[in-house]
């Protein structure tokens, strides 16, 4: 059986940051798959939503960051509404995106840099989802 590497120190720090940003409890997910079954964007994703949260549980953050799923997610909140354990996956997706964006150029994103990044360097989805998050 293939050995799964769990939680490198680097990933632990990054995952703790994701949990802090999102405020979600990934350990509550029981892998029922209801989020994936209701996700309107799942057909275009290379990892289904319940697989994405499983990777977070296993500390496999690099695999999640390489997937298109975090950028395809439309922050529609359907998954959170369907989850029997009240895990809001859309907030986790947003937090993963933020941890990537904040490290553009191996440093935190500065407010002064934002106008320069709007010419297709930040995925449009990240901007739209951040807007939704702050205008609910
Ligand atoms: S619906 Fe909730 S408990 Fe079920 S797999 Fe998705 S996140 Fe986990
Ligand atoms: S918020 Fe994202 S992952 Fe959740 S149902 Fe909507 S598109 Fe799918």
Question: Can you summarize this structure?
Answer:
This protein has nine helices and no strands. It is mainly alpha-helical and 136 residues long.
Topology:
Elements: H1 9-22, H2 34-38, H3 49-58, H4 61-66, H5 69-72, H6 78-82, H7 89-101, H8 114-117, H9 124-134
One iron/sulfur cluster binds at residues 39, 41, 49, 73-79, 89-90, 93.
Helix count equals 9
CATH architecture: Orthogonal Bundle
Q: In which range does the helix fraction lie? A: 40-55%
What amount of the residues lies in strands? under 5%
CATH class: Mainly Alpha
Q: Under CATH, the topology is which? A: Fumarate Reductase Iron-sulfur Protein, Chain B, domain 2
What small ligands are held by the chains?
iron/sulfur cluster
Would you count the extended β strands for me? 0
What does the overall shape look like?
Answer: globular
* Rg from alpha-carbon coordinates: 15 Å
| Mean pLDDT across residues | 82
Largest beta sheet, briefly? none
Protein name: Heterodisulfide reductase subunit C
GO cellular component, one term: plasma membrane
InterPro entries: 4Fe4S_Fe-S-bd, 4Fe4S_Fe_S_CS, HdrC_iron-sulfur_subunit, Helical_ferredxn
Organism: Garciella nitratireducens DSM 15102
Characteristic terms for this protein:
about 140 residues, mainly alpha, Fumarate Reductase Iron-sulfur Protein, Chain B, domain 2, globular, binds iron/sulfur cluster
Walk me through what this model shows.
The relative contact order is 0.16. α1 crosses α7. About 55% of the residues lie in helices and about 0% in strands. The chain has helices at about 10-20, 35-40, 50-60, 60-65, 70, 80, 90-100, 115, 125-135. It has one domain (about 10-135): Fumarate Reductase Iron-sulfur Protein, Chain B, domain 2 (Orthogonal Bundle), CATH 1.10.1060. The radius of gyration is 15 Å and the shape is globular. The mean pLDDT is about 80. The longest helix is centred in the first third of the chain and has 14 residues, at about 10-20. With about 140 residues, the chain is mainly α. It binds iron/sulfur cluster (SF4) (2 copies). It comes from Garciella nitratireducens DSM 15102. This is Heterodisulfide reductase subunit C. One of its GO terms (molecular function) is 4 iron, 4 sulfur cluster binding.
